[in-house]
Amino acid sequence: QWAAYEAYNRAFAEALAAEAAEGAAVLVQDYHLALVPGLLRALRPDLRISHFTHTPWAPPDYFRLLPDDIAAQLLSGLLGAD
Q1: Rounded to whole angstroms, how far apart are CA atoms 33 and 40?
Q2: Could you tell me if 37 and 12 are in contact, meaning their C-beta atoms sit under 8 angstroms apart?
Q3: Could you tell me where the beta strands, DSSP code E, fall in 1-82?
Q4: Contacts with 42 (C-beta within 8 Å, 6 or more apart), sequence order
Q5: Cα separation of 57 and 34, whole Å?
Q6: CA 32 to CA 54: how far, in whole Å?
Q7: Phi-psi sector, 3: left (phi>0), alpha (psi -120 to 50), beta
Q8: pTM of the model
Q9: Nearest to 78 by CA among 23, 48, 36, 20
Q10: Would you state the pLDDT for residue 57?
Q11: Which residues of the chain have pLDDT under 50?
């Protein structure tokens, strides 16, 4: 299921990269697209990227429940936002 989540986020980032004007500001919303900011930053470093999550994040200890590679991808994705 993680592969499907990655593929969905990658497809969204690629579509957004193709459509966004040079230097545009984009807003990525919610945990469904948590990987998009990092993927989009790699594709289009000229964009101003914001991420907003409607759902409160769990305490940091809950990240330890995730496999290390998935936790790292989620955090890297979110840190791709400005």
Answers
A1: 11
A2: no
A3: 25-29, 48-52
A4: 80
A5: 12
A6: 10
A7: alpha
A8: 0.93
A9: 36
A10: 84
A11: none
Q: Which long-range contacts link 15-24 to residues 24+ away (Cβ below 8 Å)?
A: 16/40, 17/43, 17/44, 17/47, 20/44, 20/47, 22/46, 23/47, 23/48, 24/48
User: Tokens 């989620």 belong to which residue?
Assistant: 74
Q: What is the pLDDT of residues 19-39, one digit of tens each?
A: 999 999 999 999 999 999 999
- Specify the amino acid at residue 15: A
Measured distance CA(37)–CA(49) in Å, rounded: 7
Place of tokens 């989009």: 40
Q: In the numeric block, which tokens belong to residue 51?
A: 């991420």
